[in-house]
Every structure is written in structure tokens, then in C-alpha cells.
Amino acid sequence: MSYASSPRHPSRDDRPGGTGGTARRVRPAVAALTALLLAAAVAGCDDGDGPADAKASAPAGGSPSATAERTPPSVPPAPRPPAAKSAPSSPPASSAPAKPSAPPADAGTGNGPLRGKVVVIDPGHNIHNQQHTAEIDRSVDIGTGRKECDTTGTSTNSGYAEATFSLDVAHRIRSILREQGATVTLTHDGDRPFGPCVDERAAIGNKAHADAALSVHADGAAPGQRGVHVILPAKVKGGRADTAPIVEPSKELGERVLGKFVGSTGSIPSNYVGHNTGLDVRSDLGGLNLSTVPKVFIECGNMRDPQDAAQLTDDGWRQKAAQGIADGIRDFVLSRS
Predict the structure, then answer these.
(1) Beta strands 183-186 and 279-282: pairing type?
(2) Which of 34, 183, 194, 242 gives 132 a disulfide partner, CB atoms 3.0 to 4.6 angstroms apart?
């Protein structure tokens, strides 16, 4: 929308053909004859008004002529002073140099040991998945078969959702690792309507060429089944899946994360998965099958067990969990530098 003033509508007397005052014109011959006759009639008398043609030379009513109103005297504009050499004019906005772009939001903020390293953290599920069940139920290729895009995840008996837990812990891990200089990318930040699907979660880590990737979860097993376990990729090959290059480094990553997690939180290794080792190997998870970088899943506890649930819902415990995971990732990355 233009905020420039509209052109002024000319008044009646500003327009060509207007009714501005018009000077009376008297023929010079008539004026001369009249002057002679008057001179003869009055014999040298003078009324002080001057000759009649002198009066007639002024516009009626003392107004300037219409021509004078429409054509004011031409006045040449004052010359513009030259621009000072010390202050050249600014270039147009379009040609101004672009401002330096801000560093990525996930870039490391410190000069610690992980400077230049890349970590991808995958918060399991998405709190909005429950409003998009049709979208997350569609199947996607996981290399060795097909599986649903994503699931809603579990929750504690009081309603604390796994998706909320996993995103909270992911944020804490990101903060710790960034302070040590790492670039940390989340596969999502609760800012999507659903997902990402499991194949996209793997692709994000692959595209980032992550030094390590980890997916944060909490389990939904029966009460009495307690503890933490880490899921490692099985050696699979089929379709787009070929985990051979990442099986061994992923196992090392998982072992380091598990050890640091147990030490930080005081949790026990799972008493229902992994034969009390806290390690489980699976071939049915697209997020692992399709990964080309070292990657593991961690199930931080059982949300349906009252004792584990009390820990998972505790803010201080979640900070300890994040610290343990971050320490395990750090040790793994540095061991391969």
C-alpha cells in the first residue's frame, strides 16, 4: 500500500479556463481621443486619479491576471551542494552486503574435547503422534521388511508420556555435549505434527555424518520388570539395510553409554531383557537397520513399574540420566579420535 499523498485536486481558479480576474483592455486610439476631448472639456482640471488608461492597466478588483495565477515566475532551483567525499552515499538495500548468518542452533558453544564432533540425538516418538494415528500407522521400508512409520510410545500409570520424557532428556544431553564443543542435532524438537518416521530418523544421522547417534526411550513392560537396557543393531543385510560396518562400533558405544548411565543414576541393568547384561541385539528396528553411523537405542527404565516410574518422573534423576548418556557418548567419540 502506498502512503504517498494523493495528487491535489486543482481549485476552480487553478484550472485552465478558470474564473480568475481578467485585466480590462482599452484600445490605445480610443484612449488618446478620450484624453483630448477631456482636456478640451475640463480646460486643465485634474481630479487626482490620473489618466483613464493608467487605471485600466490594473486588473479589476486588484487581482492578478488569470495567466499570472497559472504561470508563476520561473525561479531557477538552488544548486545542490556536492556530496562530501568523506561520506559517500549508501548503496541500495538490495546491493548491501548480507549480514553474517547466525551459527546453527545446535552448534557447540564450548572449546572442550568434543569440538568438531557431531552427535545426533533421537527423542523417541512424538507427543503429537496420538493425534495423527493414520499417518504414523502407514508402513515404511526398514531395509529387511516394512514397519509402521512411528508409534505413540508408552506412559506411566499417572499419564507421563514416554515422548515427553525422551524429549526432555534429549534436551539435557544436547546442553551437556554442546558445552563440551560438540555439534548436536535432534531428529525433532516437538515441532512436527507427527514422527519423523523411523527411516527418516536414521537418514538424519546419516546425512549429518554423525560420530555417534542415540535414540532415547523408556519401556512399557509389566510391573516388577525394572532397569535400563541398551539396544544394539544386529548384523543385517537386505534392501537398503547393511549394518556390517556399524555393528562393532555401535556395540562399543552401547557398552560405554550403559556403564556411565548405571554409574550416574544408580539404576540396575534390566532384569527382563539381555540376561542381566543390560544389552540387547535386535534386527527389527528401522532406526538401527538403516543407519550408516554408530547408533544405539537406550530404554532408560520401565514406565509401568512404580519404582522405575518414580525415577523417570523425577527432574533430578533425568538430569543424572542425561549426564550418564552424554558421558558415554563423549568417551566413545574420543576413543575413536
Answers:
(1) unpaired
(2) 194
